[in-house]
Amino acid sequence: MRPSELTVGPLRHEDVARCAEIEHELFPGDDPWSENSFHSELDGGNFYVGAHVNGELIGYAGLGLTDFESSVHTIAVVSGHQRGGVGKTLLRTLLAKADELGLPVFLEVRTDNVPAISLYLAHGFEHLGLRRRYYQPSGADAYTMGRPANRD
């Protein structure tokens, strides 16, 4: 995939069915999000974007927003497009929104997801703590990570 083929824009309700399919493909053992969950996130005033290649949704990311902080709710990229920069592009889009609003960013990530942890560390996140058995039903642990507000 060439970078010019990738477009990132607001996630739409029309994308939700595909998002739920991707969830089931990527997270079958950890209670994948339903279509209703995505609709609720989109309706709840959060910031969600989708990554498309040739009109096909290949990834998505969401940032929960409050007046005081933001949190990465999800970043997902279909298997065939992982490790090609799509996740990095999605994360940078979320971080740009948080920076625009002057908000710190928090997240949870599976302790065994080394590529994601490396991506977060490279973008200014630090380990804050550990949540035992955070992901259900698998019981996988999660690191909590945070990045201070960029108020430039």
From TrEMBL:
Known catalytic reactions: N-terminal L-alanyl-[ribosomal protein bS18] + acetyl-CoA = N-terminal N(alpha)-acetyl-L-alanyl-[ribosomal protein bS18] + CoA + H(+)
GO molecular function, one term: protein-N-terminal-alanine acetyltransferase activity
Protein name in UniProt: [Ribosomal protein bS18]-alanine N-acetyltransferase
GO cellular component: cytoplasm
CDD domains cross-referenced by the UniProt entry: NAT_SF
Task of the protein: Acetylates the N-terminal alanine of ribosomal protein bS18.
PROSITE patterns xref list: GNAT
Family recorded in the similarity comment: Belongs to the acetyltransferase family. RimI subfamily.
Broad class of the protein's primary localization: cytoplasm
Residues of the signal peptide: none
Annotated EC: 2.3.1.266
EC supergroup of this enzyme: transferase
Cited PANTHER family: L-AMINO ACID N-ACETYLTRANSFERASE, N-ALPHA-ACETYLTRANSFERASE RIMI
Segments forming domain N-acetyltransferase: 6-150
Subcellular localization: Cytoplasm
Domain of life of the organism encoding this protein: Bacteria
Alphabetical keyword list: Cytoplasm, Transferase
Organism whose genome encodes this protein: Saccharothrix espanaensis (strain ATCC 51144 / DSM 44229 / JCM 9112 / NBRC 15066 / NRRL 15764)
Pfam families, sorted: Acetyltransf_1
Record keyword Ribosomal protein present: no
InterPro entries with a match to the protein in the record: AcTrfase_RimI/Ard1, Acyl_CoA_acyltransferase, GNAT_dom, MshD_Acetyltransferase
Lineage of the organism: Bacteria, Bacillati, Actinomycetota, Actinomycetes, Pseudonocardiales
